Amino acid sequence: MEACDSTEETPLPLALTRFQLSEEYGFLLPDPLTELPAPYGPWMEIAHKLPQLIASRRLRSQVLQMPQLSTRHLRGREELHLAHLVLSFITMGYLWQEGEEGTVKVLPRNLAVPFWEVSQALGLPPILSHADFVLANWRRKNPNGPLEIENLDTIISLPGGESLRGFILVTLLVEKAAVPGIKAVVEAIRAILQLDEETLHKALHELAEAIGDMSKALKRMHDYVDPAVFYTVIRIFLSGWKDNPAMPDGLIYEGVSDEPMAYSGGSAAQSTILHAFDELLGIRHSEESTAFLHRMRDYMPPPHRAFVEEIHSAPSLRQHVLSSGDTRLCAAFNQCISALADFRSYHITIVTKYITVAAAKAKARWAEPGERVAPSAEKPPSALEAKGTGGSHIFSFLKSVRDTTKEGMIS
């Protein structure tokens, strides 16, 4: 009995709450706020009209008339996250309102200063990231209804209509599908520390199943997102000002720094899930891919980044499986690797459809005589044709990461 009691007192490694993770929602912000306190009405008013303001090219003039608001009335993590979401969406609209050929060099003080302060308070960069776009940007239509796409909506939007909503919410469902896998990571590490092979086997089985469910969720992208809308309308608003030919010098945050700063755009590589799974499974990517992935960790909320670092410093699962000589464990481990490689292969399929094929079609349409005279026909963006919004060379990166995942198999 005594031995049992003493383990109760030792803090368990990787308790989810230590890393602002939830048993039910994983990395998603649980039930995000949808309104800021009254003093921030001017921000909310603009944020709720972003698609219309951008379409009518009036956003920049509206932002310039916005009062300079202090961030000192923001209280607690939820208000800060909503403020970051609102200011990041306004910033992306302001930057890209005129397309990639009409960018600005300076973010005005009344937007730059509060955005910088809120970012510092959260430990996030002053740009739209996955933490804003997906993790903190959802609400239930019926508060008591399920976390299903029919009962969900975004809090703040950008141009792209139903396709943008679909893109955000399908990505959210991938995050939700990962939750049992996140819990399995924690279980697996505890099981290694306690030399409990039965629990470890079960945890690995649950992890493989969760990764399979993530692939199923990702497949719903086809039902909700139009590739032409994604490529020609949505994608530019996720683009950053680092490694982007449309903004080679970065951006000056007026009132923050006289020197331009460069930040990567929103990217799926900023989701903590695959970083956590890679660390647990001991997957080693190429030097170039690792450098990019580690840079993307700077765009995660610091507690989520700390979760990944904690997994990295835990005892090696791979070594444990190898030294156990247990064929069941080995098979369960390989099942996880296989599911992860399949997920990454499927991600390549999605990127091919939504970027490569969509880019070729957009170019062909633009080249057709008679197409360009239509007032709504925008020249398709080309600055990030072969790159992801995070700035990576998208195909070489995704294929390399998929291949190194496969190499993690234990033969």
UniProtKB/TrEMBL annotation:
Binding sites annotated in the UniProt record for heme b: H347
UniProt keyword annotation of Iron present: yes
Domain of life: Eukaryota
InterPro entries, A to Z: Indolamine_dOase, Trp/Indoleamine_2_3_dOase-like
Record keywords, A-Z: Dioxygenase, Heme, Immunity, Iron, Metal-binding, Oxidoreductase, Tryptophan catabolism
GO biological process, one term: L-tryptophan catabolic process to kynurenine
Cellular-component GO terms for this entry: cytoplasm
Database matches in Pfam families: IDO
UniProt keyword RNA-binding, yes or no: no
Gene Ontology MF term list: heme binding; indoleamine 2,3-dioxygenase activity; L-tryptophan 2,3-dioxygenase activity; metal ion binding
Family, similarity comment: Belongs to the indoleamine 2,3-dioxygenase family.
Listed name of the protein: I23O2 dioxygenase
Primary gene name: Ido2
